[in-house]
């Protein structure tokens, strides 16, 4: 077992020491290799987000904030309007890398507001403002994850069995994480949980990332295939489900990794509380319901080829590969944010947060 703070303080995204590029842990290489990448071109940043080298809604937002700052440093215009025009082109490009997690556009919009705040400033001063804003977005995420973990921990007891889906730990965020944050915080305080980590097909974020983080932190984790969630619930081994989120609509409908809604349906059947944990930056009050959430569709190769020595299906078999699904608000026991725990009706409790 490694020291738990080595896991909770892992920096999956940061600004390089010389402040010119974004440094990320390449999450596609875990758990076998810990490789750091330095991203400085728009194409490299876009590609790192699209190919999931950096992933998890909050981490994507932080990467985009640092990324657009580094790209702004490369703009050669000194005239404000021309600078703004170039900035907006780069912002739109990064924003096109993934559609579902709202944190991407949320962070980029915050960065744009820093440029728009005072048009009388010269470009050098604007760059300073951008740097400060990107660091602030990162610092705020650290604080939010801690607060979410505290609130989440208040919902579970020592010795509980917790089922997780996908990865919403330190790699996907800053420090403790969201969906898995209470487990790390509880461990720090001497509590013991039995965690069942869904492997999370197709790209195995639960197997590669969640079980890796939890085991390294000395937390009792059992990896299960996605189709085993029902049996562990039926056996009475699960007292709560905890997941992260990519976009929460105003009515509480929640987009998270594909398969999350199935876990919520099972939890309802077995009478197990189902908790969604995420920062208020993941709540999109412009989406009335899950109907308004754009679900990313990804390549068939993720189902047929990735992570296997040989293809596991016919090359030309038709595939459907949605990266997320929406869990209906009626299946969610509570939504845990850094500002507190929201219970149904979510149209009222979420609105009160803003
Ligand atoms: O496709 P990913 O790996 O970016 O999807 C990640 C998830 O679905 C997470 O559960 C969510 O972003 C919350 S991360 C704190």
TrEMBL record:
Site note Transition state stabilizer, residues: 166
Pfam families given in the database record: IF-2B (PF01008)
Pathway membership, UniProt: Amino-acid biosynthesis; L-methionine biosynthesis via salvage pathway; L-methionine from S-methyl-5-thio-alpha-D-ribose 1-phosphate: step 1/6
Record InterPro entries: IF-2B-related, IF-M1Pi, IF_2B-like_C, Initiation_fac_2B_a/b/d, M1Pi_N, NagB/RpiA_transferase-like
Domain of life of the organism encoding this protein: Bacteria
Signal sequence bounds: none
Active-site residues per Swiss-Prot or TrEMBL entry: 246
Enzyme nomenclature, EC number: 5.3.1.23
Chain segments annotated as coiled-coil in the UniProt record: none
MF (Gene Ontology): S-methyl-5-thioribose-1-phosphate isomerase activity
Gene3D superfamilies linked to this entry: translation initiation factor eif-2b, domain 1, Translation initiation factor eif-2b, domain 2
Catalytic activity: 5-(methylsulfanyl)-alpha-D-ribose 1-phosphate = 5-(methylsulfanyl)-D-ribulose 1-phosphate
Binding-site positions, substrate: 55-57, 98, 256-257
Role noted for this protein: Catalyzes the interconversion of methylthioribose-1-phosphate (MTR-1-P) into methylthioribulose-1-phosphate (MTRu-1-P).
Family per record: Belongs to the EIF-2B alpha/beta/delta subunits family. MtnA subfamily.
Protein name from the UniProt record: Methylthioribose-1-phosphate isomerase
Species whose genome carries this gene: Mediterraneibacter catenae
């Amino acid at each position: 077992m490694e020291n738990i703070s080595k896991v909770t303080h892992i920096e999956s995204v940061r600004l390089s020491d010389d402040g010119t590029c974004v440094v990320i842990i390449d999450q596609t290489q875990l758990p076998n290799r810990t490789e750091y990448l330095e991203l400085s071109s728009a194409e490299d940043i876009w590609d790192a987000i699209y190919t999931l080298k950096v992933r998890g809604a909050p981490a994507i937002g932080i990467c985009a904030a640092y990324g657009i700052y580094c790209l702004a440093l490369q703009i050669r215009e000194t005239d404000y309007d021309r600078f703004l025009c170039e900035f907006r082109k780069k912002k739109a490009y990064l924003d096109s890398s993934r559609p579902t997690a709202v944190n991407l556009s949320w962070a980029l919009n915050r960065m744009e507001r820093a440029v728009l705040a005072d048009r009388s400033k010269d470009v050098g001063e604007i760059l300073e403002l951008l740097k400060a804003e990107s660091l602030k977005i990162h610092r705020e995420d650290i604080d939010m994850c801690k607060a979410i973990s505290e609130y989440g921990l208040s919902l579970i007891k020592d010795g509980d069995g917790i089922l997780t889906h996908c990865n919403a730990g330190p790699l996907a965020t800053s420090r403790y994480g969201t969906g898995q944050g209470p487990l790390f915080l509880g461990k720090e305080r001497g509590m013991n949980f039995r965690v069942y980590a869904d492997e999370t097909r197709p790209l195995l974020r639960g197997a590669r990332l969640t079980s890796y983080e939890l085991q390294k932190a000395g937390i009792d984790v059992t990896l299960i295939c996605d189709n085993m969630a029902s049996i562990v619930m039926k056996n009475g081994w699960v007292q709560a489900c905890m997941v992260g989120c990519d976009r929460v609509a105003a009515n509480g409908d929640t987009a998270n990794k594909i398969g999350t809604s199935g876990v919520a349906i099972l939890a309802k059947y077995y009478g197990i509380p189902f908790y969604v944990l995420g920062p208020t930056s993941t709540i999109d009050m412009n989406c009335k319901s899950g109907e308004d959430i754009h679900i990313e569709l990804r390549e068939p190769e993720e189902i047929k080829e990735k992570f296997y020595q040989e293809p596991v299906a016919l090359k030309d078999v038709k595939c459907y590969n949605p990266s997320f699904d929406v869990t209906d608000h009626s299946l969610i026991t509570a939504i845990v944010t850094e500002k507190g725990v929201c219970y149904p009706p979510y149209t009222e409790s979420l609105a009160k947060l803003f």
